[in-house]
Amino acid sequence: MLPHACSRRWILSALLAGAALPAAAEAPARSLRPLPRPPAQAARPPQPAPGLGSLVEAARLGGRTGVVVMEAASGRVLEGLEAGTPLPPASVAKAMTALFALERLGPGHRWATRLVATGGVAGGQVQGDLILQGGGDPTLTTDQLGDLAARLRAAGVRGVRGRFLVHSGALPRIDRIDPAQPDHVGYNPTLGGLNLNFNRVHFEWKRGAKGWLTTMDARGERFVPKVAMARMRIAERQAPLFTYESQGDGDSWTVASAALGKGGARWLPVRHPELYAGEVFQTLAAAQGIGLPAPRVAAQMPAGQVIASVQSDSLMPVMRDMLRYSVNLTAEVVGLSASGAPTLAASGGRMSEWLQGRYGTGCRFVDHSGLGGLSRISAADMAQALQRGRGSGLVGILRDQGMRDAKGQPVKNSPVKVPSKTGTLNFVSGLAGYIQPPSGRELVFAIFSADAARRDALGRAEMERPRGGPEWTARARLLQGQLVGRWAQMFG
Length: 492
Prior knowledge:
Layout lengths: L2 H13 L36 H8 L4 E8 L5 E5 L11 H13 L6 E6 L3 E2 L2 E2 L3 E4 L8 H13 L4 E2 L3 E4 L32 E9 L2 E7 L12 E6 L6 E6 L2 E7 L6 E7 L3 H15 L8 E2 L7 E7 L3 H11 L2 H12 L4 H16 L3 E2 L11 E2 L1 H10 L5 H4 L1 E2 L18 E7 L2 E8 L7 E8 L1 H5 L12 H22 L2
Parallel strand pairs: 5-7, 6-8, 8-15, 11-13
Antiparallel strand pairs: 1-2, 1-22, 3-6, 3-16, 4-5, 9-10, 9-14, 12-13, 17-18, 19-20, 20-21, 21-22
């Protein structure tokens, strides 16, 4: 494994520290082996397995629920309920993005981040401008920029006579994935051709003797450079939790003092990713003895010579991490790279057209992560794409969600594997993938639930944690576990 792959996964783990992984499946309600026959006087009629309608009704989700299970080898539908109803897929959409990118880009695709000089190096000085050129890498980390600074020093550079520029034109700049989300949620960052630490900055606060101590940094596993372009001010108020203002030289935040407690930390989105990456690289270069002026954003990429570069991991492990950690930025950047479209909506549209032509799947995607609530696909179409796309390598990079018991708890050492993708939005929950018994038929399934009216009624301030939302999601996940357990027992 490459060192930067370890760094990327460290960042992903840090970003999602404390996040609960959703329940996915349930163990069979009855034993799979024959039981001794009870005495005749104690015999009771066999209890039929609950029907799909009964399970869905008992979940009390409201709205609509569409489910389907089919035989993986043939695509033959075994059971379904409202399987043709188009519903929001949430992050299950990332499975479709993986199919799209693996075919369009190829599993060996890599992104490069380069340092380009517009003049030669003489006396340790670049005789012109130095440009940090983003190539669209969705997984670039601070540690990789540290390695890039070391390679610049190894190339004999100690400074520049011209400007230090940052260029991110490899991909279109998207201010937010979903404009309806709150400003401060880290899963809704700005996108572009230069994306550092998933375009998130680390905000930490501690209570000191004379008040609050706050820091903003771009921490990696090996380097923790401070950041000045993202600024935080503590405001004496109860609410709102955060306010945000975009300024020409960076991001300006305030946080409510009443919400800070004794201390803590969280990742905030970056809205000026070019300045963020440029400042971090300037700091890391200084640690190597390389003096650079303050970064400036280049609208056009000047011609020049590449003097150092770093590369991403290949696409297949990038997709594995995207699916495991459900990283929205990775999904969107990969989708934009695969489509070549100028906007996120157009890119989602091109993926929808590709799915229709490749797998006969009817769908409408407005993005590649599923964060936008206007995307629609039915359980039947999702399962059909998964069934027909089995040869893509997708099955091997999906997380095994495992089996769950009747209370939603993981079943230890279950022989049944459930490689699948979960998805959650407010009052939207999905699960789709494969059921793999140790022997017998492999199955493909999709489960989507959505209470659109309840979701649409939410105000912007309620979206991070709406009243009743966690309880609704828990019931939806329990239903998913019951259905997967039912299918493993009945058809697997």
